[in-house]
Amino acid sequence: MKMFLKILFLIIFQVFLQNQSYGQINYGSNNGQYVLVNDSKLYYEVYGEGTPLMLLHGGMGSIANFKNVIPELSLHFKVIALDSPGHGRSELIDSLSYPILADYVVEAIKKLDLDSVYIAGYSDGAIIGLLAAHDKPEKIKRVVFGAGALSLNASTPEGIDMLKGLTPQNLPASYELTYKEKSPNPEMWEKFVFNSKTMWLDEVWIPKSKLKNIKSRTLILFGDRDPYIPFEHGIEIYNAIPKSEFCVLPNTQHNVYTDPEMVNSILIDFLSRK
């Protein structure tokens, strides 16, 4: 009996240690890998097994944008979390635009030898993912379009003012600190901010004419309290994409991936459904 209890204790203790370690994973800084795309190194991390699910973060963000949802998603899919060029641990490129970043995603899918993939994007990542799906529908089967937009003018007045007034000096100090801690090009902080702002001030992010040609099944996901993109704009996108669904998350602001208990079940259902 004593031996049984000892073995049982050891098993429980090992599970406890595993859970403790699992909960402390530093997503975005967890010994990932690099894929070379157009002579630039893009950083990515892989979790789980199954159908590949590529996560594309928001503007000035990184893989860490998805830290709350990766643990459960990795139990259902092979999660491939990617830092966009110039973001997180990926190398900076000369200029940023949504079509350029979508091209990098398409090329990364090719370089990683993925036959097909799902994409879940947040804000800028949603825009990039949908453009990539338009260009490569045979590769990208499903897209979660989380809190993205078609154009600068789709933003709220507060959102537009924020983007127009953006400078390296008026961003929170944590942004610069995080950039310089992670980036292989820490000296390029001001150029990174300038390139990001230039991209955001483009009048058109996704031409609306492209939406009717989206063949990937698409989930439009918005928070009901988003201060930057009103969810009514999400309805406009939903109405324009043939194979789309629309979901509004209650009591949720711009980052629709913060509450795993609410959003993971929605993602898993949409991505797993036949």
List the helices and strands and how they pair.
Elements: H1 2-23, E1 33-37, E2 40-47, E3 52-56, H2 70-73, E4 78-82, H3 98-111, E5 117-122, H4 124-135, E6 140-146, H5 157-164, H6 173-182, H7 189-200, E7 217-223, H8 231-240, E8 244-249, H9 260-272
Parallel strand pairs: 3-4, 3-5, 5-6, 6-7, 7-8
Antiparallel strand pairs: 1-2, 2-4
Helix pairs in contact: 3-4
Q: What does this molecule look like?
A:
There is one protein chain. With 274 residues, the protein is an alpha/beta fold. Helix content is 38%, strand content 18%. It has one domain: 3-Layer(aba) Sandwich (Rossmann fold), CATH 3.40.50. The chain has an eight-stranded mixed β-sheet with strand order 1-2-4-3-5-6-7-8, with helices on both faces. α3 packs across α4. It is globular.
Give short descriptive properties of this protein:
disordered N terminus; 8-stranded mixed beta sheet; 8 strands; 274 residues; 9 helices; 38% helix; alpha/beta; Rossmann fold
Largest sheet: 8 strands, mixed
With strands numbered from the N-terminus, the spatial order across the biggest sheet is 1-2-4-3-5-6-7-8
Q: Would you state the CATH class?
A: Alpha Beta
> How many individual domains?
1
- Sheet-strand content, in percent, reads 15-25%
Strands, count? 8
**Overall spatial form:** globular
Task: Tell me the helix content.
Answer: 25-40%
Give, in order, the helices and strands.
Answer: HEEEHEHEHEHHHEHEH
CATH topology: Rossmann fold
Quickly give the structural class. Answer: alpha/beta
Second rung of CATH, namely the architecture: 3-Layer(aba) Sandwich
Q: Low-confidence parts, pLDDT < 50 over ≥5 residues?
A: 1-22
Tell me the Rg in angstroms. Answer: 19 Å
What is the fourth-level CATH superfamily? Alpha/Beta hydrolase fold, catalytic domain
Number of helix segments? 9
* Average pLDDT reading: 92
Give the end-to-end Cα distance, rounded to a whole number of Å.
Answer: 49 Å
